[in-house]
Design goal:
By secondary structure, the protein is α/β, with parallel strands linked by helices. Helix 3 packs parallel to helix 6, helix 6 runs parallel beside helix 7 and helix 11 crosses helix 12. The C terminus is likely disordered. Bound molecules: NADP nicotinamide-adenine-dinucleotide phosphate. The site of NADP nicotinamide-adenine-dinucleotide phosphate (NAP) has 29 residues, from helix 1 and strand 9.
Length: about 350
C-alpha cells in the first residue's frame, strides 16, 4: 500500500537507505513492529528487484504496512539529488532518516594475518576487518573516494537536502550507522576521502561519527528541529565486503560460539544489529544524548539491548574541518550539477582510457 502526499501528512515517515538487506532490513522490521501502520517506510535502495523482494518479505510479516520504494544510488550525487526531489514531491515531512547503506571494498583475506590475529586476539578478529584486504585509492564515477562517497558524502547530501522536511516533523532525527571499528587513528583529515588509507572503510565510519555529532551545532544555530545521532550495529553476519559464501557461513558459526561465550558485540542478525538505530529514533529526546555512540549488543542467548558509548576520541576541530569540506563539495554540486557531472564524465573517460574499460553512457 502507498499513500499520496495528503494522506501521509499525518503519518510518520522513515527513510532507510540500504533497506533491502542486513541492518537496514532489520531497521524496517523493528520500526514496523513498534509503530505498525502509523508509519510510512521509504526503502531507499539501488536495485528495484532486491528492494521489491525485501518489500514482499516485509509485507508477508506486516500485511498492513505502508512501504514505498524510491531508488537511489547513494554513491552517486545526481542520483541522491533526484531521490530527494522525489521525496519532497511526495512527502510534507520526514521523521527519520536512517543513513545506513554502506560498502566495504574488499579484495580478499590476508590469511597470514587471519591466523596471527586468531591466536593473538580472536575476539578482535571477529569484531574488526583486520584480516580483510581493502581496496586502496578507489574513486567513484563522481571522482570522489568510492567508500567515502557511499558511506558518508551521499548521506551528507541527503541530509542537507531533506533537513527542512525533517524539521517539519517537529522532531526530526538523522541516524548514522557507524561501527565499533571506527576510531580516530583510522581517519586523517588531510586524506578525508580515505584515498591513501589502508582502511578506507574504518576511516569512513569515523567520518560518520564526526559528521553525525558536529552537525548538531548547525541544527541548533539554524533553529532546525532535527538531531543527528551515531550508532553501531556491532557484528552482523551480512554480505558487507562481498566475501565468499563459505567464509560468511564459517564466520557465522564462530559468531554464535563467541556469543554463547559472552561476547556481546556478536549480534549476528540484522534485526539484533538494528536495535540501537531504532532506539535513538523512537526514544524521547530527553532520554538520548547525541554525544554518545549508541551500540547494539546481544547477550549470550541472543537477546539484543542498547548501550551508550562515550566517544572519548571525538575531536571537534577535526569534525568542523570535515564538515566544511563536505559542505564545500555539496555546494559545488548544488551550484552547478551539470558542470560537476561533466567533470565526473571526463574523469570516468580518463579512468576507462587508462584501464581499457568500456565507457558508461
Ligand atoms: N555487518 C556488520 O558487522 C557491520 C558492522 C559495523 C557497521 N556496519 C554498517 O551497517 C550498515 C549496513 O551494513 P550491513 O552489514 O547490513 O551490510 P549489507 O547487508 O551489505 O547491506 C548494505 C546495504 O547497503 C546498500 N548499498 C550499498 N551500496 C549502495 C549504494 N551505492 N546505493 C544504495 N544502497 C547501497 C546495499 O544494497 P545492495 O543490496 O543493492 O547491495 C544493502 O542494502 C553499513 O553502513 C555498514 O557499514 C555493519
Amino acid at each position: 500500500m502507498t499513500l499520496d502526499k495528503e494522506e501521509t501528512s499525518t503519518s510518520k515517515v522513515a527513510i532507510i537507505t540500504g533497506a533491502n538487506a542486513g541492518v537496514g532490513y532489520g531497521i524496517c522490521q523493528r520500526l514496523l513492529e513498534l509503530e505498525g501502520d502509523s508509519m510510512t517506510i521509504v526503502m531507499a535502495c539501488r536495485s528495484q528487484t532486491r528492494a521489491s523482494n525485501a518489500r514482499q518479505k516485509l509485507l508477508a510479516q506486516f500485511p498492513y504496512a505502508t512501504i514505498d520504494i524510491i531508488l537511489v544510488d547513494i554513491g552517486d550525487v545526481l542520483s541522491v539529488l533526484e531521490f530527494c526531489h522525489q521525496i519532497r514531491e511526495k512527502y510534507n515531512h520526514v521523521n527519520y532518516l536512517f543513513c545506513n547503506a554502506g560498502i566495504l571494498s574488499a579484495l580478499g583475506i590476508k590469511w597470514s594475518r587471519l591466523f596471527f590475529y586468531f591466536l593473538k586476539d580472536p575476539v578482535g578478529l571477529m569484531e574488526r576487518s583486520d584480516a580483510t584486504i581493502q581496496a586502496m585509492g578507489e574513486l567513484n564515477p563522481d571522482g570522489m573516494g568510492r567508500v567515502f562517497a557511499c558511506n558518508v558524502f551521499g548521506h551528507y547530501v541527503m541530509m542537507r537536502e531533506l533537513e527542512q522536511l525533517l524539521s517539519n516533523s517537529g522532531d526530526g532525527r538523522v541516524i548514522w550507522t557507524s561501527s565499533i571499528t571506527a576510531e580516530k587513528a583510522s581517519f586523517d583529515i588531510e586524506d578525508w576521502q580515505g584515498l591513501k588509507s589502508l582502511v578506507p572503510y574504518e576511516a569512513s565510519k569515523w567520518a560518520c561519527d564526526l559528521v553525525a555529532i558536529a552537525t548538531n551545532d548547525r541544527f541548533i544555530q539554524e533553529g532546525l528541529n532535527v538531531v543527528s545521532f551515531t550508532t553501531s550495529p556491532g557484528v552482523v553476519a551480512s554480505n558487507i565486503g562481498s566475501l565468499p559464501t563459505w567464509i560468511i557461513k564459517a564466520r557465522t558459526l564462530i559468531h554464535y560460539l563467541f556469543r554463547l561465550c559472552g561476547v556481546t558485540s556478536q549480534n549476528i542478525t540484522g534485526y539484533n544489529g538494528a536495535i540501537a538505530d531504532v532506539f535513538v529514533a523512537l526514544q524521547p529526546l530527553a532520554a538520548v544524548n547525541y554525544w554518545f555512540r549508541y551500540c547494539s549488543l546481544s547477550n549470550r542467548w541472543g537477546k539484543a539491548y542498547v548501550e551508550a558509548q562515550a566517544l572519548e576520541e571525538y575531536d571537534p576541530e577535526i569534525a568542523e574541518k570535515l564538515l566544511q569540506k563536505c559542505e564545500l563539495a555539496y555546494q559545488a554540486w548544488k551550484k552547478n550539477p551539470k558542470k560537476k557531472m561533466e567533470e565526473a564524465q571526463e574523469h570516468e573517460a580518463h579512468q576507462a582510457d587508462s584501464e581499457n574499460l568500456p565507457l558508461l553512457s
